[in-house]
């Protein structure tokens, strides 16, 4: 069948069941109730500390076919998924489903576990590295389910994604299960992507390398939701938290795009006292914060909050008084971690508060402007951040589609071409973020405004910004680049791309690699 | 039927259904799942502010027969219950059930609403003032359900107590429903008793007199759980937060008991580094903190946490470095409110974290020592804090039974007689806290140790404390007091007294007043 974007999607999928086609960014309405978590009773005097992961597997009753969840705040420094997989393989478990908010190159051992049948199912919001290649090549019989950060929280809260055992990488814990992300040698900041897991999983196992005296605080995840605590030598390498993408770019093209992006925000009329802002952690997206900062200083503007994915750059803007608060679901560097630990204006929130569309209001709904990247953007402003030009998975939505849907002004800031391939295309290979939620594309060759926003186009023209039709940018890209080869794809569906509301926005087919 | 304490209780009750008899403090085991809260979606740009309580009633679909919940952090200064009741009466609603965590003299208008049929059901953890008298006199056809603070959170989470509309008195709010208890003219500290209401009620209405710019923080209750915000002139009188019971006593008998209580704690072996402590807010109970403080100073002891109901006295002990943290579900005075607002070592928690027996571990489980009061205590160490000597309701468990069950050492500190009536009785009129969870009774005439704790009796004797049999204290009380008149009680059950696990520990019968 075809969904509202014209994408061909199956009626159902193995391990998933019936598929609801995407019908528009704000079309789906929730019904029903949140998932039931189990009622348990833990009495006085009982310590929750177990001697090993193996002991936790036993205590949790972990068995073949179960769904195990993980969070990714340790990013490419995470050791916990690999430790748990090694234990599962050692115990001979089969047919597990891994639900991890994001997968990084460090998680390469998962490929072996998918190959040997220890793992047969995968749910995630973002994949880079060997796991992405293996999934694209069709290593699993069942398609991987890819979600947004808000969509994952929604799926857990509504019971679409049920978790048997949640493993929480806890930079610090006490013996009764209070967990903190800002303490210990592997401090990573918030534990926001694990919040729903802890709330709704049947069994919750904290894995830590830093056991503190009771009571540990500040509390990211409370004792009332944690069953067991396992102490290991090390849960991760903090150097892996800061990935390369979070450094401010020196590239002049990035800066040209970033400057134009900041001018778009200023011209939109949103850049005034109370301004709220989210930006990506790399390239032109992060560089736009540099120019927004300059404009805020010049205008004497005091914003309300910056949201994200928080980098040191946002911490500096907080310290400078340009924002009153940082609302933080994930730290992108260690300076942000230190800020969260000591600054009461730097607030930790869970993924549901951040971006779950099926709550009484998540914080992306209150964003004035968000600046996002893209692998491809098409003439309908649909964005692809899942697959590369060769059809291989190399990312995922993360919070992309969430922030785009919530913000009053959504800007995609991207170079017109990457590696001699055009970014602006007639039709994206994989639709991740629907065009109706994207307002402006900014490139180094000019910018295009979504025809749904004539008011905005008028403002940008009045500010003498180089507004073009997106078709013009597409043609400019074609003039500059080699004609792209058609991407040879197999018939097999290797990934389902869920929109944040749980409808299917696209699928990814097997790539020839 | 008779329960494990030999109390005669009905098999079922109107508006309640079948009754499970109390079988022992740790006998009941939970099964099943937490209650489902509704899944909702609130999109961008929608303000939650409504013009009036009447508008909120309409938006919430409030109708006859519904259950409305309230919290009591504004204590005897609360205006919100009365405002909502006035609106309900004005709209001609009937047959409402009020579930408020505690009722105070200021809530006298509830009596009129019970009399005129606006309200026909009541759930609460504590009642003093005109409502208590009216309930005891049998104003309602259905018995009132009295719970503990932890038991109320349990009842809400498990779905035993379902809430249609929760009204949350919010000292500060933003227009998207983030609520804080430490800001605004009616700042009251934590909103811990409203946490479960906000999580599980079908509709959540915040009532505030202080609307702040978005985002409001620190966040006591998040936007993801709040449907509507109503701004009124005033939600309460902060002077009502500090009730008379929270002042340090000058009474020499109280101090004699308090000193002996502190000696019991010291002799128990628990008063060492890491010590954790909870005490009541009045009389000998609060005064015991004075002597515990002295002993901690003298011994150079650094405790882990103090829990409660937090008073200024505990704040001083925190500042002095005698505790590392205060864990706070309710502030008893404005100094404590100020401390919570600015000290990161003063931690707000919800009622479930505080005392819900059916979680993966509440914090009362980690208490070393708690000092509690009593209206009566009997030869089996069962305690009554619900009814006075005339059989009229004049209190309730609050956290009494919760802390007693959780703490390693539970001390009841009380004068041997009150108003010429003995505190130590053969059999308490109403059983609130089971004797198996009470370790020591301390009076001005000596102390008695529960026969279940021969180890403790041995330690106290070794410390030359005046250990007696509780029967001796009972006889001493009889010698000093007038023989108590038999209490004339009717047949009608006016209140069900639930133990924290949801079993029935006793009932209250109609009093002749």
Question: What can you see in these coordinates?
Answer:
The structure is a homodimer of 513-residue chains. Chain A is α/β, with parallel strands linked by helices. Chain A has two domains: 47-240, Glutaconate Coenzyme A-transferase, CATH 3.40.1080; 244-489, Glutaconate Coenzyme A-transferase. Chain A contains 14 helices and 28 strands. Chain A has a ten-stranded mixed sheet with strand order 3-12-11-8-4-5-6-7-27-28. In chain A, strand 24 (440-443) and strand 25 (446-449) form a beta hairpin. In chain A, helix 7 (252-267) packs across helix 8 (283-299). The first copy, chain A, is globular and about 70 Å long. The model of chain A has no long low-confidence stretch (mean pLDDT 95). The interface between A and B is large, with 63 and 62 residues.
Quick overview:
Two copies of one chain form a homodimer. Chain A contains 14 helices and 28 strands. Chain A is an alpha/beta fold and 513 residues long.
């Amino acid at each position: 069948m075809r969904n509202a974007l014209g994408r061909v999607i199956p009626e159902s999928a193995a391990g998933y069941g019936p598929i609801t086609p995407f019908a528009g960014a704000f079309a789906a309405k929730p019904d029903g109730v949140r998932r039931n978590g189990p009622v348990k009773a833990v009495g006085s005097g009982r310590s929750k500390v177990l001697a090993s992961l193996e002991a936790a597997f036993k205590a949790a009753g972990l068995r073949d076919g179960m769904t195990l969840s993980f969070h990714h705040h340790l990013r490419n420094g995470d050791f916990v998924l690999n430790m748990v997989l090694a234990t599962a393989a050692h115990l001979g478990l089969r047919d597990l489903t891994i639900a991890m908010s994001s997968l990084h190159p460090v998680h390469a051992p998962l490929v072996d576990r998918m190959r040997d049948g220890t793992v047969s199912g995968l749910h995630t919001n973002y994949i880079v590295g060997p796991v992405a290649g293996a999934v694209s090549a069709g290593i699993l019989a069942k398609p991987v389910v890819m979600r947004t950060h808000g969509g994952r929280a929604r799926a857990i809260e509504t019971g679409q994604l049920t978790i048997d055992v949640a493993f929480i990488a806890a930079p610090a814990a006490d013996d009764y299960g209070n967990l903190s992300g800002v303490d210990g040698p592997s401090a990573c900041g918030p534990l926001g992507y694990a919040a729903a897991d802890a709330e709704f999983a049947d069994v919750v196992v904290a894995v830590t390398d830093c056991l503190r005296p009771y009571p540990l605080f500040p509390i990211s995840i409370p004792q009332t939701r944690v069953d067991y605590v396992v102490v290991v030598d090390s849960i991760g390498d903090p150097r892996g938290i800061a990935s390369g993408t979070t450094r401010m770019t020196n590239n002049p093209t990035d800066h040209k795009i970033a400057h134009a992006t900041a001018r778009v925000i200023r011209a939109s009329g949103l850049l005034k006292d109370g301004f709220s802002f989210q930006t990506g952690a790399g390239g032109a997206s992060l560089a736009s914060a540099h120019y927004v900062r300059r404009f805020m200083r010049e205008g004497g503007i005091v914003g309300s909050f910056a949201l994200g994915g928080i980098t040191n750059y946002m911490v500096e803007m907080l310290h400078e008084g340009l924002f009153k608060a940082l609302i933080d679901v994930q730290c992108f560097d260690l300076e942000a971690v230190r800020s969260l630990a000591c600054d009461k204006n730097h607030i930790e929130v869970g993924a549901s508060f951040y971006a779950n569309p099926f709550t009484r209001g998540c914080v992306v709904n209150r964003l004035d402007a968000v600046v996002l990247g893209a692998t491809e953007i098409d003439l309908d402003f649909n964005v692809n951040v899942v697959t590369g030009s060769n059809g291989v998975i190399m990312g995922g939505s993360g919070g992309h589609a969430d922030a785009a849907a919530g913000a009053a002004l959504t800007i995609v800031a991207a170079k017109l071409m990457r590696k001699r391939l055009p970014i602006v295309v007639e039709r994206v290979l994989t639709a991740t973020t629907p065009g109706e939620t994207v307002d402006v594309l900014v490139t180094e060759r000019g910018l295009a405004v979504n025809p749904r926003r004539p008011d905005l186009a008028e403002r940008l023209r009045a500010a003498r910004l180089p507004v073009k039709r997106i078709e013009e940018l597409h043609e400019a890209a074609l003039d500059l680049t080699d004609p792209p080869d058609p991407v040879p794809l197999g018939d097999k569906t290797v990934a389902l791309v869920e929109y944040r509301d749980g409808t299917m926005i696209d699928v990814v087919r097997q790539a020839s690699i």
